[in-house]
Amino acid sequence: MNASSDNYNKILKPYASNNDNFLGRFYPEKISFYRSEYQRDRDRIIHCSSFRRLKHKTQVFVYHEGDHFRTRLTHSLEVSQISRSIARHMGLNEDLCEALSLAHDLGHTPFGHAGEDVLSECMSSFGNFDHNIQSLRILLLLENIYEDYIGLNLSLNCLDGLLKHNGPVYKEKKILSLIPEIKKYNFDYKKFGSLEAQISSLSDDIAYNNHDIDDGLRANFFLIDDLREIPILKDIISETYVEGSNKNNHKLVRKLIDFMVTDLIENSKNNINTNKINSINDIHNATQSIIAFSPKVAQLIKDIKNFLFIHMYKHKHIQQWSDKSRQIISKIFNYYLTNYEKIAKRFDNQYSRERNISDYISGMTDKYAIDLYNSIS
């Protein structure tokens, strides 16, 4: 027993991820006296090289387009902040929420979703590519800093939460094809993840929808008046907008985040009561996600996503970089197919040449990929 873990059961709800339902690590380790097991997970994630590289990976805007646009790193920190706030109010495990939030995007390629799309196409005949699964590949296989094992040896609770970032897994064969090693962990794919995993997932939605609005307004892709076409958001704008103020964008985003977080907390607490959740097993065996928005806010988020798709993600400026990123990643992938010996020494495993190239490219920052592309063109 350590000092931090001993406090868990005193302050957390019985259905939280606490000391009693800690699943351990695949490779047993001596318990730390001063840090909880989930603090150790968080620290390992923060200190790994894959996490540091997120600072130069695209969220929507390529890293050099402005100092104040989000990157994958700042996005991950914002998800972490939101998830911790929710967890603290609901009596859940903040440390696990933080670890899950900080790790959820480790597997993203350079150039955001455009980069993922083209790498998936390059890998279409070789097992495909998925950034969520890639995050697990990084944590289980690619980070290699310990003497006794590969990977970061995160807690099984943390790995289960990342595996189920989008809910129960119904494509088990896809997971096993990309990470055969995960079979030895004996995860129950069909059951729901912890409440902390569910909070991290929806905090991701809250963060990127709101902060993409903020970045879109900053880039002048659209105006606040354009957002008035979205029901509910129109009312929030009316509450916060002051003619001539240069703080309207910030006030809108703050209010909208608070609105979504409040709804998520209240609706989730109602779900806990309605479904008579008394233990973590009740969560795993539930027939639906317990952490959820109300129908009206779920629709609001859907409307915001549709708005951003049209006005931001399909904006000609973003599309130009998306097209360029396709060219860059395709060129690099094909270059290493015919020049594999240049990176072969990096990989001492049973995986195919194509999978190793995919791992290498997905770990690149925008800057590294651009520089490499220019050097081989």
The level of helicity is 55-70%
Instruction: Please name the CATH topology.
Output: Hypothetical protein af1432
Query: Mean pLDDT, nearest integer?
Result: 93
Q: Superfamily at the CATH H level? A: Hypothetical protein af1432
At the first level of CATH, the class is Mainly Alpha
Poorly predicted runs: none
Distance between the termini: 57 Å
Shape: globular
Q: Classify the secondary structure makeup into a structural class.
A: mainly alpha
Q: Please summarize the sheet with the most strands.
A: none
Radius of gyration: 21 Å
Compute the number of structural domains: 1
Number of helices: 18
Q: Classify the beta-strand content into a percent band.
A: under 5%
SSE series: HHHHHHHHHHHHHHHHHH
What is the second-level CATH architecture? Orthogonal Bundle
Report the count of strand segments: 0
